[in-house]
């Protein structure tokens, strides 16, 4: 799985952006409007690295599902020449668009594979995509003509991101939309998701409920902590994250701490590399963990990992968690 163990300081964004993107594929009129409103060159900064984009990418590569789905939601799949690294299934509404783009690797492609696609822009959800064993360092890619961008949630600097909000999520989408020359699509996405989020906050389906967000792990629990997607989701529905005081988007916590917290509900991130089914089996077979209130009463909530990480599907994740908690009938 991608490296997510230390999550990040907020990246600098494009100063002139109008925040936001559109969930469905845009029509031809959208494309004409985009071409007329986009302004280049664009200087873009992420994770402390600045690069300049002189024109809309025509041969972009996305690394990590979150990055790929942002581009698909913007209707810019025709500007992609490669993708890599899914955590789970791409939604049906984007499946045809996804299948139109070559898959460079099941996980991270190496530098030679990336460069063979002749990219002019490389966009990743995590800084680990630019390791020497993967796409290669960003400075080298820039020298070779490929601009780069990393999600502000994936910088891996270890600095706290306590000021993150859904605005941060939408700003990433706006950054990418501006690079691809379709800023108005990001605006529409933001408006739509803001309405959904307002409704979730008014309902507050999780109010008064203590939740443990279980991402993965066996010897320790890799938990949703206080600075990432899980915290944003739980805040949106009014639930309490039992590890909200832990810095980072995700963090290793001891099973002893989980037992002490004794959550009422456990949210399970379902990913190819750590399925919800496997996590439930671990909890139920352990002599101590099986006595947790949530485990004894089978109060599990399951969402795809891709709806738990900041990106275009995070509001969907919040909606799904709210619906499942409501179905548990705790309040």
UniProtKB/TrEMBL annotation:
Residues 59-331 form the Fe/B12 periplasmic-binding domain. Gene3D superfamilies: Nitrogenase molybdenum iron protein domain (3.40.50.1980). Keywords: Signal. Residues 1-25 form the signal peptide. Pfam families: Peripla_BP_2. InterPro entries: ABC_Transporter_SBP, ABC_transptr_periplasmic_BD. Belongs to the bacterial solute-binding protein 8 family. This is ABC-type Fe3+-hydroxamate transport system, periplasmic component. It comes from Saccharomonospora azurea NA-128.
